[in-house]
Design brief:
- Helix content is 79%, strand content 0%.
- The protein is globular, with a radius of gyration of 21 Å.
- α2 packs across α8 (200-224), α2 (40-65) runs antiparallel to α12 and α9 (229-247) packs across α10.
- By secondary structure, the protein is mostly helical.
- 42% of the residues are buried.
Length: 381
């Protein structure tokens, strides 16, 4: 029990550290851009840009928690985007059919990768590296090196539209109420099993802090145009996959697999089946990210191969608290990591710094996050 408490506190401390890093970045960029960084317009654009990286980061979190890796996520996302562009722009298909094709393709790709990894014992690194090369070539083959555009207005909605302000406030209130219900349920469960150590005042204080943050976020987004649709999609993905990872047998199984695969097998967990499902869900989320990405750009392009988006997804998951050794990680942490990554891109672009500075700073933060994880695990042992 003592070890579990120590483990949880270390994860919370890491999350707080990353939040502090984000705050420091925002303060620094605000000071160096004459206050332009913290405008509601820029913050709205920043979080909208972080949406597709965050969505991929959620899938990457599940993969890394099992002890795996996906080096093909960015190329998968780009390839699916190009296929959907062909379907709608050249094929004239409707938006629902186009998106459905993309989702099915993402699931199929994920299943193929999962089966190869789980049932043939090929290393995830090799399988996904091979897939990365295949889809990089696939994008060029499908598009002929050109941008396929434009999409229909109903498709662009998923990357460029905003909720009306009233809808944003309604969502904020519902989120706050649901958060309170969740806190009370967890408290009741701890009371039932005699593990409650937190006072009611502490719980209410934590709920109040998160409620203020939710209201502040909605106020900022509404002050510009409203909550961007990509952000809503990301939020829905986070809620669904947080539930899956924390409240289902499947979710608990993937943490067990990442923690100790042999022990998971002895506990009766179907490791091969669960690994296949993890990569399937990862492929699904790559497809969702592809919809958001191509809708925002209003086109499918092989230039997505130059974006290194799989590295951003991996960095988002790791910076957000997912351990590269497996068994530890939170879906919500990937969103924090994605916001940090996009803040670096956005802030340094506003400062007119060369792109290489962005890569260098991202690299330093990523290495620091992994070092933090390594040192924390050593202290726990």
């Amino acid at each position: 029990m003592g070890e579990a408490k120590k483990k949880n506190s270390s994860i919370d401390f890491r999350t707080l550290t990353m939040v502090l890093v984000l705050v420091l970045l925002w303060v620094a960029f605000t000071a160096t851009t004459g206050g332009n960084f913290l405008t509601t317009r820029n913050l709205s654009n920043l979080i909208r840009q972080a949406a597709f990286t965050g969505i991929m980061g959620v899938g990457m979190t599940l993969v890394i928690v099992t002890g795996g890796i996906d080096l093909s996520a960015g190329m998968t996302m780009g390839f699916i985007g190009c296929i959907m562009a062909v379907c709608q722009v050249w094929g004239g298909l409707s938006t629902p059919v186009t998106i459905l094709i993309g989702i099915i393709l993402g699931i199929v790709i994920g299943v193929i990768e999962g089966v190869l990894i789980a049932y043939t014992d090929l290393a995830p690194f090799i399988v996904t590296l091979g897939a990365q090369l295949v889809f990089r070539g696939g994008m060029l083959a499908v598009t002929g090196g050109q941008t396929i555009a434009p999409f229909q207005e109903s498709y662009k909605f998923w990357g460029t539209a905003y909720l009306i302000p009233l809808a944003g406030w309604i969502i904020a209130i519902l989120a706050i109420v649901c958060l309170l219900i969740s806190e009370l349920r967890k408290r009741k469960a701890k009371e039932k099993y005699g593990t409650l150590t937190e006072s009611m005042g502490s719980m209410i204080g934590r709920w109040a802090v998160f409620s203020i943050l939710i209201l502040a976020a909605v106020f900022i987004l509404n002050d510009f145009k409203g909550i961007p649709i990509p952000v809503m999609v990301m939020a829905i993905v986070v809620v669904i996959f947080t539930f899956i990872s924390q409240k289902t047998t499947f979710g608990r199984s993937i943490y067990a697999i990442g923690g100790n695969t042999a022990a998971a097998k002895y506990a009766g967990i179907n490791v091969k089946k669960n690994l296949t499902l993890v990569y399937m869900l990862n492929g699904l989320l790559c497809a969702v990210a592809a919809v958001v990405y191509t809708a925002r750009l209003n086109g499918g392009t092989a230039q997505a191969a130059n974006g290194n988006y799989e590295l951003d997804a991996i960095a988002s998951a790791v910076i957000g608290g997912t351990s590269m050794t497996g068994g530890i990680g939170k879906v919500s942490g990937a969103i924090l990591g994605a916001v940090i990554m996009m803040s670096i891109d956005n802030g340094m672009s506003m400062m007119n710094l060369d792109a290489y500075w962005q890569f260098m700073v991202k690299g330093v933060i990523l290495v620091a996050a992994v070092l933090f994880d390594t040192q924390t695990r050593k202290r726990r042992k």
